[in-house]
Write a structure and sequence with these properties.
Elements lengths: L1 H21 L2 H26 L6 H11 L2 H9 L1 H7 L3 H5 L5 H30 L9 H24 L8 H14 L14 H4 L3 H13 L4 H36 L6
Length: 264
């Protein structure tokens, strides 16, 4: 157990160092901020053009601010296995005494920090440029919601990323899931706008509950009011992490059996 915890810490530290070894801090910051701002701006312009009172620019801006954490919490985690194959270090990871799940859990921990930073900046953009009023928000409740959302989404990303241990890469799958989130999770329009048969699919994504909880907090709800949504996200997140543990072990054995560990 101690080796696993040490492996998680070491993996998180290596993920941070490798991030800034490839892309400098300034360029990385520009990329993070520009992606968050321009995606939000694009969908706000679309909503303003549509003129739908149920999906106002402020509504869309707040939804996109919350969804900004998925770029790190889901996409960043999902790409980890493929990135290790690309640089030829997957076999080396297999040779360590730490289980592969814990190695990628460390990478997910680092990406969760990036996700929290991104969503915080995005909420600032939404408030500063697009009229989102957070003055009445309970900051403790808001922080709890964002942390729970990030936890659940990292678990979701770990499940998807486990496929990359066996396949060439899980990048395409991660991209599909990322944009499905924008469609299904109430980010740009209420879930009630979806066809009735598609609405249940929204509740597979933890982001759905996170977006709703942030909207409630922005409207003045306290920690007690959003506690049920927090409990759902934490439960879903825990289930995803357990599923990811089983899937990493399964795909690791399958990759060794079929010789696809270095396939990219």
């Amino acid at each position: 157990m101690l080796e696993d915890i040490t492996g998680v810490k070491a993996s998180a530290l290596v993920a941070m160092r490798s991030q800034f070894a490839v892309v400098g801090p300034v360029l990385w910051l520009v990329q993070i901020l520009s992606t968050a701002l321009f995606q939000m701006w694009f969908f706000v312009l679309v909503s303003d053009f549509a003129g739908d009172p149920g999906a106002t620019p402020a509504y869309v801006a707040l939804g996109n601010a919350v969804s900004a954490l998925t770029y790190s919490a889901v996409y960043g985690v999902t790409m980890s296995a493929g990135a290790e194959k690309h640089i030829g270090t997957m076999a080396t990871i297999m040779g360590t005494p730490t289980r592969m799940f814990y190695v990628f859990l460390g990478k997910g921990a680092y990406q969760s920090i990036i996700g929290m930073f991104t969503v915080t900046v995005s909420l600032g953009f939404a408030s500063l440029f697009f009229g989102v009023d957070l003055s009445g928000a309970n900051l403790v409740a808001l922080a709890a919601v964002l942390l729970a959302t990030c936890f659940a989404m990292v678990g979701f990303g770990m499940v998807i990323g486990s496929v990359g241990v066996y396949l060439r890469s899980s990048m395409i799958l991660g991209s599909i899931v990322l944009y499905l989130g924008l469609l299904l999770c109430g980010v740009n329009f209420p879930i009630s706008y979806l066809p009735w048969w598609l609405q249940p699919a929204s509740y597979v994504f933890p982001l759905t509950f996170g977006v709703q909880a942030v909207r409630d907090v922005a409207a003045g709800a306290g920690l007690a009011e959003v506690a049920p949504l927090l409990a759902i996200m934490l439960s879903i997140g825990a289930a995803f992490f357990l599923m990811a543990y089983a899937l990493f072990n399964y795909f690791e054995r399958l990759a060794l059996k079929r010789g696809s560990l270095d396939m990219f």
